[in-house]
Design a protein that fits this description.
single chain; 8-stranded parallel barrel; 5-stranded antiparallel β-sheet
Length: 527
């Protein structure tokens, strides 16, 4: 039996709120001062850890993921002073913070790159570069996406094209002012770093020491793409694992409580490798893209088998590791590396309510928009999220049913997921309804870490077309029932209470109702 409670590491059972620093406005501007004022709102909604999306100096050509200075907070966000005010409030509320650490690339405005193209050989070696123009052989398709094949110095290279129709005739290469060709995975204004250079490792050691010393943990952006070299520019190679291990070593030196959260949408057999092993650990946490797709496939089909398949495939990870479960991340609802049938099912079901992003390999948009703005379906989706394994992550605004705003779109479809929370959105009747229900769900979940770390088994008391899970631990048992029936998927709270009471009276009188929600109920009792 798993011993639950304080022995479960904080990161395995956290509820993570993902937010931009300027999401809450104080008058006409949002910054770390206004975010600090809204931390109580975030905690009361049921979140104990906050992930602040990129806030460092940047020309903002990619929402801050194009970093130009790793030591300075953007002035319009309150600068380093505003960040310190935010951290003091975090400490007062006993919350924790993740910051984004973009390790694959920097902005062309970064001092390192400026020095490189000015002729400084030391800094040129910070980047993947070549004096010879690569030759594009062809662009080809496979089940996982589009790929570019190049010839360079008699060697053939192959790399996946991430942003389709964005990178011109030579998708991965940018010619600098010094005449050298520089490699970029994403946009041409984001130049990839050369992690085979020990000086790059040293430079990031200083970055992690600066921020980790303030008690922060780190979300590692686009981890599989770091660690490349000119001999092999494909993602997910062994070089990326060396990067993660080195980052973890540095983090533990400056903050033993700090952890790494990996963003790596890869096939599952590759994804698990980013945890390392018990003998040689890498990251503590990773986003569970497999379960995310399973959640959506279950919701649109009414078949719980998609969730059970995902749960089985994501088991068997090292003891130090845990998953982060989510409905979507700040970027998109990613369908890359999904099984083709699952990709087709989810894409075809949701594309009318979302924004196409990277063809059929992803959809941009907010959860409420995917669910046609129906408050009860929004609650059901989050109840289902909170009922499966892993720490939970929710993107700001989803807790009040914020919808996709296409007017924000400037560079690509992901921009529609962004923008600030207005007083109207926070104060509307629908927002209060959704937030009240989600607050009950996530605040209750923090009391029962079994839901995060214990492997569920099928309950034999579920009705047909209901997803039924049973968790055991610390002398108590939790049973979860979720109505997936196409005929009546969303039921009233009163009907759920009747369901819970009928189960109690018939079979388990010692049980108590923990939380009924639209189309779902949690029951807790003695084992």
């Amino acid at each position: 039996m798993v011993d639950i409670g304080k022995q479960v590491e904080w990161y395995k059972r956290m509820n993570l709120y993902v937010v931009y620093a300027d999401a809450f406005r104080n008058g006409k501007r949002g910054d770390f001062f206004s975010l600090a004022k809204n931390l109580e709102y975030i905690k009361e909604t049921g979140f104990d850890v906050i992930h602040v999306l990129p806030f460092l100096e940047s020309p903002m050509q990619d929402a801050g993921f194009d970093v130009s200075d790793f030591f300075k907070v953007r002035k319009r966000l309150g600068g380093n002073e505003g960040f310190e005010v935010f951290l003091r409030e975090v400490g007062r509320l006993k919350m924790k913070v993740f910051m984004d650490l973009v390790v694959n690339h920097v902005s062309v405005e970064h001092e390192w790159f400026k020095k490189a193209v000015s002729g400084d050989e030391y800094y040129r070696n910070f980047f993947i570069h070549t004096p010879v123009q690569p030759k594009l052989i062809e662009v080809e398709d496979d089940r996982w996406g589009k790929w570019a094949r190049y010839r360079l110095n008699r060697r053939e290279l192959r790399s996946r094209i991430i942003f389709l129709n964005q990178n011109g005739e030579l998708p991965h290469w940018f010619r600098g002012e010094d005449g050298f060709w520089y490699y970029h995975t994403f946009y041409k204004h984001q130049i990839d770093l050369n992690w085979t250079n020990p000086e790059v490792v040293k430079a990031f050691g200083e970055v992690i020491s600066f921020w980790g010393g303030k008690g922060l943990s780190f979300r590692i952006d686009a981890a599989p793409f770091a660690g490349k070299n000119l001999s092999n520019i494909r993602e997910g190679q062994m070089g990326s694992h060396k990067v993660v291990r080195e980052l973890r070593r540095i983090v533990k030196e400056v903050n033993k409580d700090g952890v790494l959260l990996i963003e790596a949408c890869q096939p599952m057999y590759k994804m698990k490798k980013y945890f390392g092993s018990d003998e040689q650990p890498e990251a503590e946490m990773a986003y569970n893209f497999e379960l995310m797709r399973g959640l959506w496939a279950t919701m649109v089909s009414g078949k719980g088998s998609y969730i059970w398949k995902a749960l089985r495939r994501t088991r068997d990870i090292p003891s130090h590791a845990g998953w982060v479960s989510f409905l979507r991340n700040h970027d998109e609802l990613s369908l890359e590396y999904a099984q083709p049938k699952v990709r087709r099912l989810v894409y075809d079901s949701l594309v009318k309510n979302g924004v196409e992003f990277r063809g059929e390999y992803g959809l941009a948009g907010r959860t409420a928009s995917f669910l046609k703005k129906d408050p009860r379906k929004i609650v059901l989706a989050h109840f289902l999220l909170a009922s499966v394994n892993g720490a939970c992550a929710v993107v700001y605004g989803d807790e009040v049913g914020k919808v996709t705003n296409r007017r924000y779109i400037r560079i690509d479809a992901r921009d529609g997921n962004r923008g600030w929370l207005t007083e109207t959105e926070l104060g509307s009747k629908k927002a209060k309804t959704v937030r009240d229900e989600l607050s009950k769900i996530f605040r209750t979940r923090l009391k029962y870490p079994e839901l995060a770390v214990v492997k569920p088994i099928r309950s034999n008391r579920g009705k047909r077309n209901w997803l039924s899970l049973r968790y055991g631990g610390e002398g108590r048992e939790i049973e979860v029932f979720v109505n997936l029936s196409r005929k009546k998927r969303v039921v009233s709270m009163d009907e759920n209470k009747k369901l819970a009471l009928s189960i109690n009276r018939a079979e388990r009188k010692e049980d108590k109702i923990v939380l009924p929600a639209y189309s779902g109920v949690w029951l807790v009792g003695k084992e």
